[in-house]
Amino acid sequence: MANDLIQQNPWDELRAHTSARIALGRVGCSLPTREVLKFGLAHAQARDAVHRPLDFGELKHQLHTAGFRTLKVRSNAEDRQTYLLRPDHGRHLHGDCRVQLQHELPAPELAIVLADGLSAVAVQRHALPLLQAFRERFTTDWANTPVVLAEQGRVAIGDGIGEALRARLVVVMIGERPGLTSPDSLGLYLTYAPRVGCLDSARNCISNVRPEGLPYQLAAHKLDYLARQALRLQLSGVQLKDDSNLQPVALQAD
């Protein structure tokens, strides 16, 4: 009987094609109770994604088991509260960590940064399977390629990390700002010749990496194309176009 009170929206059939909140229906001048409850749950999941810490110990263990060389650093944001209130602190590598990286073996070509960002759950869930898919495509000295775990990091922290490791190319994998239908979306940012002070226009971005968005294999295909082109052309950002859709995608079983 309760469903009889709901006036359906004529766009209702479009809901099968999107997770966006459209065609919710109404009861009088209000939303149906189930939609109000779903919204509340999604909002809580988004808040949890922002505040939940990344389990760096578990992630490091998983990466070692998969054969990746890992390093651990932090930004100038000493805690989560500072990170959220002072974005500029999260963009800069802590001075002690810079010295640490300068004494490490230089990156043979590529440095990869995993930063918690605004959704640690995105990094916890998606970074490793994406890295494995990328490793199957991109040929480099993977045994010595550093995967740097960056605590309280934002995208620009990759500039200081790449510069300290003398990398030709840095790829930052970071938890994106959660949406009400995507609390675990992973973003990828690629920068050629990283250095402190790089502009955002010098980066290429691949967004919404997750099984419900851009699948791992397709994201790895795009990242492989952009990385190869960046190294070949010696540039990235607005000058580097993503024409990966012009090449066939070799899909492998997950």
Automatic annotation (TrEMBL):
<dbReference type="GO" id="GO:0031471">
    <property type="term" value="C:ethanolamine degradation polyhedral organelle"/>
</dbReference>
<feature type="binding site">
    <location>
        <position position="205"/>
    </location>
    <ligand>
        <name>adenosylcob(III)alamin</name>
    </ligand>
</feature>
<feature type="binding site">
    <location>
        <position position="176"/>
    </location>
    <ligand>
        <name>adenosylcob(III)alamin</name>
    </ligand>
</feature>
<feature type="binding site">
    <location>
        <position position="155"/>
    </location>
    <ligand>
        <name>adenosylcob(III)alamin</name>
    </ligand>
</feature>
<dbReference type="InterPro" id="IPR009246">
    <property type="entry name" value="EutC"/>
</dbReference>
<protein>
    <recommendedName>
        <fullName>Ethanolamine ammonia-lyase small subunit</fullName>
        <ecNumber>4.3.1.7</ecNumber>
    </recommendedName>
</protein>
<comment type="pathway">
    <text>Amine and polyamine degradation; ethanolamine degradation.</text>
</comment>
<dbReference type="Pfam" id="PF05985">
    <property type="entry name" value="EutC"/>
</dbReference>
<dbReference type="InterPro" id="IPR042251">
    <property type="entry name" value="EutC_C"/>
</dbReference>
<dbReference type="GO" id="GO:0006520">
    <property type="term" value="P:amino acid metabolic process"/>
</dbReference>
<keyword id="KW-0846">Cobalamin</keyword>
<keyword id="KW-0170">Cobalt</keyword>
<dbReference type="GO" id="GO:0009350">
    <property type="term" value="C:ethanolamine ammonia-lyase complex"/>
</dbReference>
<dbReference type="GO" id="GO:0008851">
    <property type="term" value="F:ethanolamine ammonia-lyase activity"/>
</dbReference>
<keyword id="KW-0456">Lyase</keyword>
<comment type="subunit">
    <text>The basic unit is a heterodimer which dimerizes to form tetramers. The heterotetramers trimerize; 6 large subunits form a core ring with 6 small subunits projecting outwards.</text>
</comment>
<comment type="similarity">
    <text>Belongs to the EutC family.</text>
</comment>
<dbReference type="GO" id="GO:0031419">
    <property type="term" value="F:cobalamin binding"/>
</dbReference>
<dbReference type="InterPro" id="IPR042255">
    <property type="entry name" value="EutC_N"/>
</dbReference>
<keyword id="KW-1283">Bacterial microcompartment</keyword>
<dbReference type="GO" id="GO:0046336">
    <property type="term" value="P:ethanolamine catabolic process"/>
</dbReference>
<comment type="function">
    <text>Catalyzes the deamination of various vicinal amino-alcohols to oxo compounds. Allows this organism to utilize ethanolamine as the sole source of nitrogen and carbon in the presence of external vitamin B12.</text>
</comment>
